[in-house]
Amino acid sequence: MTANTYIRSVMDMLKSKIGEYIERSGYRRDYIAKRIGVSYRQLAKYIAGDSFPTVPKLFALAQLLGCKVDDLYEYEEKY
User: Fold this and answer.
1) Closest of 40, 50, 49 to residue 73, by C-alpha
2) d(CA 32, CA 35)
3) CA-CA distance, 35 to 57, in Å (whole number)?
4) Are 38 and 47 in contact (CB under 8 A)?
5) Does 4 score more than 80 pLDDT?
6) What stretches of 1-79 show up as alpha helix (H) in DSSP?
7) What is the DSSP pairing of strand 14-16 with strand 73-75?
8) Cα–Cα distance between 34 and 20 in angstroms, integer?
9) Bridge-partner residues for 73, per DSSP?
C-alpha cells in the first residue's frame, strides 16, 4: 500500500462532526466561513466530509467553535 493510498483510506474513515458543532455554537455558517477564510461552499464541503480543512484552518475552526480539533471528526473503523 502506498502512502497516498493509506492516507486516502484513513480519510475515508473520518466522519465530520463540524456541522454538529456549528449548530451548537449558534453562529451562522457564512459567519464561520468568513472568520476562517473560506467560502461558504468550501465550509459546506468540510461539513459533508467531501473536503478537509488545512491544519491551521482546523485549529481556527475548533477555537471559534469552542472545542478541540479531535472533536471535529470521528474515526469510524470500516471492516
Assistant:
1) 49
2) 5
3) 10
4) no
5) no
6) 3-11, 18-25, 29-36, 40-48, 55-65
7) antiparallel
8) 18
9) 16
Residue with cell 471528526: 73
Contact between residue 69 and residue 18 where contact means Cβ atoms under 8 Å apart:
no
Q: What would the pLDDT profile of 17-39 be if each residue is shown by its tens digit?
A: 999 999 999 999 999 999 999 99
pTM (predicted TM-score):
0.85
State the cell numbers at 21.
458543532
**C-alpha of 17 from chain center:** 7
**CA 42/CA 50 separation, integer angstroms:** 9
Other CB atoms within a 10 A radius of the CB of residue 20 amount to 15
Long-range contacts of 28-31 (CB under 8 A, 24+ apart): none
